[in-house]
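Review this today:
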Amino acid sequence: MARPMGSVRLKKASPVTLAVGAALCIFILYFLIGSSAPDFSASRKATAASHPLSPPTSPFRKTTTGGKLKAPPVAHYNLNDVSTTSQPLENRENILVLTPMARFYPAYWDNLLRLDYPHELITLGFILPKTKEGNEATKELQKKITKTQKYGPEKDRFKSIIILREDMDSPLSSQDESERHKMENQKIRRAAMAKARNSLLFTTLGPSTSWILWLDADVIETPPTIIQDLARHDQAIIAPNCFQRFWNAEKKEMDERPYDFNNWQDSPTALDLAKSMGPDDILLEGYSEMATFRTLMAYLATDDGLLHEEIPLDGVGGAALLVKADVHRDGAMFPPFAFYHLIETEGFAKMAKRLGWQPVGLPNYKVYHYNE
């Protein structure tokens, strides 16, 4: 007898198949909404709402509380509430200290610990290359961080510390001072430095940051009050004078000499040189092969000068530099390309000026560079 059209006989499922299917369904439900699943919402909410650096960047996983799904957190930041004043200590303003690092100098870290600005208001950020020297520097840095943050006295512990590793190859085979300062290495070296600075800046600048102190890893001596001293000027960009201590064989005593020649006031000669250059050529300072006749802040220091005397600058170095966070938020970065024939920190000064921010320098306020 023919079956009616449309009727289908279903094969009876075995008890084993049904048991496996039921177990699988239970496992899936347990994994997704089970009460024993890790509650990531609390940690992500804390990161979003109170982390000193930035909103969350890792995925949010929904969980249940009393059978109700939690919504992903929403972080609110009012940048009008972030002050950047001449009295950062009194106003408890957050400081971001940023350092590109290829070598680790213990004296650099010791100098950081001597800063008398409250460490709970200071975030440290580092970027290191993935080279043999960079790997060694990272290990030494992490040792110091562990000693300070885990075992050190409370007053020495910093608000937070971020370490980035560069994903680009180092343009130079050696970080020796003689190799770093060869004129033919300057464009590729400083382009790489600019990229490192930008990566560090864009990763660590948070909504609560008031000031950024750029401090090179080989600057080993600053006044403990450098943050307050520079901020008291209430300038958008301010640079101290970077010197180097050395043994003077003629005088048979310790002496000091200028080191950073990137803090300068422009000259007609330099401007004329720029007009004759190709679009990708850059002006360099401190080389006899390219005499610019700029006024260098390094040579303006006087023994009887006023410590807080200001001068306007057209170019700045990065050995030590205090910057209002709003300057970077406005878009001033470190060009890794020829920007009006300037690059890296000097290009940053030019870009900041184009945005309406005037850099200034303090010829008689000194910080000191390591002497190799």
Remarks:
- The mean pLDDT is 86.
- The radius of gyration is 28 Å.
